[in-house]
Write a structure and sequence with these properties.
2 domains, mainly alpha, about 140 residues
Length: about 140
């Protein structure tokens, strides 16, 4: 109920303020960028009152900037950062249950389908890349 009430209040407050938000977007990035950075630094610091959090934020901002410049998508990276500890833990538990045998991933139909699908996806990306690389090598010789 509180979610619905919060959304209704947000709607009531934001509809009259749309022209104000449009005016804020017209501010040049030269001024808006440092203000956003300042608000981010204040927000990060106020969570734990720790300066190390600010350094971590700046490091990850640099990583995000480098990813954007090299045209990497940030969503898979963030998803991997969030899910990797859980996946690693489940992988370790599975190997402990099977005494280190990877056959456990092929015993059940659902996990076997996922393993086969992952293998097919990897192969479909590797083979064209190898053909493309071989074509480049043949052109050079």
């Amino acid at each position: 109920m509180s979610l619905y009430l919060g959304n209704i209040m947000l709607l009531i407050l934001n509809l009259p303020l749309i022209p104000l938000w449009v005016q804020i977007l017209k501010i040049p990035y030269l001024f808006l960028g440092p203000i956003i950075l300042l608000i981010c630094v204040i927000g990060v610091y106020s969570c734990n009152y720790n300066v190390v959090d600010i350094y971590l934020m700046l490091i990850f901002a640099g990583v995000g900037y480098a990813m954007r410049k090299s045209r990497y998508e940030p969503a898979p990276f963030i998803l991997g950062m969030i899910l990797s500890p859980m996946i690693e833990n489940a992988f370790r538990q599975s190997l402990i249950l099977s005494d280190g045998s990877f056959y456990i991933f092929l015993e059940r139909p659902i996990s076997a389908i996922f393993v086969i699908a992952a293998f097919v996806v990897i192969v479909t990306f590797i083979i064209p890349a190898m053909k493309k690389k071989k074509g480049v090598i043949n052109r050079m010789t």
